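Open question from group meeting: does this chain pack into something compact, or does most of it stay loose? Before anyone orders reagents, we agreed to write out a predicted structure and look at it together. Recording both the input and the output here so the notebook holds the full record.
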Amino acid sequence: MALTYSSYLRIDELLALQEPRSSPPEHDEMLFIIIHQAYELWFKQLLLELDKISGDFSANRLHASISTWKRCRFIMKLLVEQLDVLETMTPLSFAAFRDRLETASGFQSSQFRELEFLLGFKRPEMMKFHSEGSLARVRLEERFRGRTLMDHFYDLLEHQGAAVPAELKARDVTRPVEPNEALQLEILRLYKEKFDMLVLFEIMTDFDEGLQEWRYRHVKLVERTIGNKKKGTGGSLGVDFLKRSLFIPTFPDLWAIRHMM
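Structure tokens returned:
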């Protein structure tokens, strides 16, 4: 049987994955499902791209990493723009099917937690949303024990002539990434001396800013839809918890050098 557009992309199976639970059907539930499924697909792609960048960093493939960062930046812009579509759903529309979600919550997105762990924002308590032995839990545990993107970034900086502090090279990778003043001085030197490194630092900062924007927009969307309730959908931790991660930079050293220039 000849390969077709539909069979290659498995369109029939894809279009069968949207199963609203409201009865009678609530119009906006389909939108809610499609947008969140699309998010998971983009999370999958971001993990693929950021894993590639990690390998590029450690192998000193600077220009290859810059090209991939450009793609990641555009994906992040798409993630933000999808919230514009979701915000067309009114609080009353969401309330009409919210109870059908039962214990389901965005806090259970294992891929987003994988992204956080890979980017250095490691909070072991976030693994509790996944049962021990499940595929999601196994992947999260691997990410938690593994090197972060920043650890691979330190490899690249050394390849490019930076003196990376010994405590960073020997750090406990299960701990969150923290800024380092000595490293910032080395980054600033490379920023001034090597144009291609300047390009890399700026595009990484662009991505970081986009992630912070997505977090902010997500918090405001939740607040706009369900209010500042103590618990979120499915008994999740709600708006107050989401606000605690707002404006926490993924690459704090790249932001810190701004006041040194």
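Observations to bring back to the group:
The mean pLDDT is 90.
Residues 2 and 46 are 31 Å apart (CA to CA).
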